Amino acid sequence: MKSTSLWSLMIVLFAIAAGLFAFADTDAQVRPAVVLGFLLICPGMMLVRFIRLRESVLEWALAPALSLAVDAIVAGILLYAGRWSPTSAFVILLGLTVVGVLAHETFGFLTCRRKVQ
């Protein structure tokens, strides 16, 4: 299995776990950690996969920053639209992340490629 496919699988599984923990009626102690981990890593890592960086340190540095930016953009759009709801923001982020991963796996040839000199 390619590294890209492994990352995509991990992101989708993390999104599923975060969705289950967020919407299931359980008193799990790990619920905040799983949901916060998803919000801090997965949306940004989905975007980083499109860039195809060669250094994993750069990927891990960009993922939280991009995640927080995407989270803020979604929240801002919902606020300006007058439709703010934490549940709808989380559902939008889940959907955006999963659709982005599927787009990357389906249309991977559209990602940025660097010329090797």
Structure explained in plain terms:
- This protein is mostly helical.
- It has one domain (3-107).
- The protein is built from four helices and no strands.
- Helix 1 (3-23) runs antiparallel to helix 4 (86-106).
- It starts with a helix and ends in an 11-residue tail after the last helix.
Summarize the structure.
This protein is mostly helical and 117 residues long.
Strand content: under 5%
**Approximate shape:** globular
Mean of the pLDDT scores?
88
Let me know the largest β-sheet: none
Low-confidence stretches: none
Tell me roughly what share of residues is in helical segments: over 70%
Rounded to an integer in angstroms, the radius of gyration calculated over CA atoms is: 15 Å
Topology pattern, helix = H, strand = E: HHHH
What is the count of β-strands?
A: 0
Report the structural category.
mainly alpha
Count of discrete domains: 1
Instruction: Name the quaternary structure.
Output: single chain
Distance between the termini: 27 Å
Per DSSP, the total helix count is 4
Characteristic key phrases:
4 helices, 0% strand, globular, single chain, mainly alpha, 117 residues
List the helices and strands and how they pair.
Layout: H1 3-23, H2 31-51, H3 56-80, H4 86-106
Helix pairs in contact: 1-2, 1-4, 2-3, 2-4, 3-4
